[in-house]
Design brief:
By secondary structure, the chain is of the alpha/beta class. The chain is 55% helix and 10% strand. It has a single domain, classed as TIM Barrel. It contains 15 helices and 8 strands. Strands 1-8-7-6-5-4-3-2 form an 8-stranded parallel β-sheet. The longest helix has 26 residues.
Length: 361
């Protein structure tokens, strides 16, 4: 395929390297754009569903009202989860041709377990097992909390393709990979198939950047502001090195985009980039050269400066920086869980407004 055939930089990324591009949304229009530009997967969660409703309520209002009538005794939570499931299934249908062409190795859409279950491994694993029945190409997201690591192993054992999320650090990523290996080995020991299992572990690179910037402001740390854009990239590259050296069957996934390096620095890696459509369009309009950079190390001066000035970066960068018992209280984890739960409550509010219209409005 010559250069003139590539529709965009992301299309070239997906066509010329092993790096996969996914769409970070279940919006049908956004997913169509992404697939046209090389995307082979998608991710969603209740916050994303709320954002999709804000933009596409005209497409979904009628169906929500139908669900309310079809489920006369349902709570707003039950209506919301039915909607989340249906959005995921619609997205899965768009990706089914890819899934079939690639024999199940690509073409999946992720649906996220209830963020409120973050302390309960059984609830997460049970919900993941149910979500896995919604379509052949489902993948299930769960947070990398202490209980989440347990749920990752159990869900993998049950045959669920997991996408570990609410993850920002090397110790979290390694804990996920080890949990997946335990789950796969349990399946293999019982003669169960693992050939179609394609687990991924997200590192929310931009949210790690965000957290270190918060710490810089809180502590009044003076540092080259450009260095703060490299936190997530440095953690991801260190995790990627470990994954490659140990041959984990889980692949890493980069999420939470804040700058072009969250794409350009990972080109060439055997990993996934799940990118919001707005950032996809920015990257596709850019003149950044599509060349492999995954093996280019982050400037040691930058890494050393970050390690020396931020304990929170040290905890994120080193494999032994945290134990699983510390995952839940890590700043980026707490901020993200709070945000996900708040977004879920916002989604419930949208459903509530249709179930019980405001008479004062």
């Amino acid at each position: 395929m010559n250069a003139n055939v590539y529709k965009s930089p992301l299309h070239k990324t997906a066509s010329t390297t092993v790096t996969e591009v996914w769409n970070d949304s279940c919006s049908i229009e956004e997913l169509k754009y992404s697939i046209e530009n090389g995307a082979v997967g998608a991710t969603t969660n209740p916050v994303i569903v709320a954002e999709v409703l804000k933009k596409e309520m005209s497409l979904w209002k009628g169906r929500i009202l139908e669900l309310i009538n079809e489920m006369p005794e349902a709570t707003e939570d039950e209506i919301a989860w039915k909607l989340i499931e249906e959005m995921a299934v619609k997205g899965s249908e768009l990706l089914m041709p890819v899934f079939e062409k690639e024999n199940g190795r690509k073409g999946r859409i992720s649906i996220q377990t209830n963020a409120k279950y973050y302390r309960n491994a059984k609830r997460m694993a049970d919900q993941a097992e149910y979500f896995n029945t919604l379509a052949p190409n489902m993948m299930v997201k769960m947070p990398v909390t202490k209980a989440g690591v347990e749920a990752v192993e159990e869900s993998t054992y049950r045959g669920v393709n997991i996408n570990a999320t609410v993850c920002f650090t090397v110790p979290q990523a390694v804990a996920v990979a080890e949990a997946v290996e335990r789950g796969l080995k349990r399946r293999e020991a019982e003669g169960l198939d693992v050939s179609s299992m394609t687990p991924v572990c997200t590192i929310m690179v931009g949210r790690l950047d965000d957290w270190i910037k918060v710490m810089a402001n809180k502590k009044g740390v003076v540092i080259d502001p450009g260095y703060l854009e490299w936190c997530g990239v440095a953690a991801m590259k260190n995790a990627y090195r470990i994954y490659q050296e140990r041959g984990y069957r889980t692949r890493l996934l980069a999420a939470a985009y804040r700058n072009h390096m969250h794409w350009s620095e990972f080109i060439g890696g055997n990993m996934v980039l799940t990118i919001p459509c707005g950032w996809q369009k920015k990257f596709n309009a850019s003149d950044i050269e599509v060349v492999p950079r995954i093996d280019n190390p982050v400037d040691p001066k930058i890494v050393d400066e970050l390690l020396s000035k931020f304990d929170e970066f040290r905890r994120a960068y080193h494999e032994d920086g945290m134990t699983p018992e510390e995952f839940d209280s890590y700043g980026a984890t707490a901020r993200t869980l709070r945000g996900f739960i708040k977004g879920y409550e916002e989604l419930l509010g949208m459903i509530r407004d249709l179930m019980i219209p405001n008479p004062d409005a």
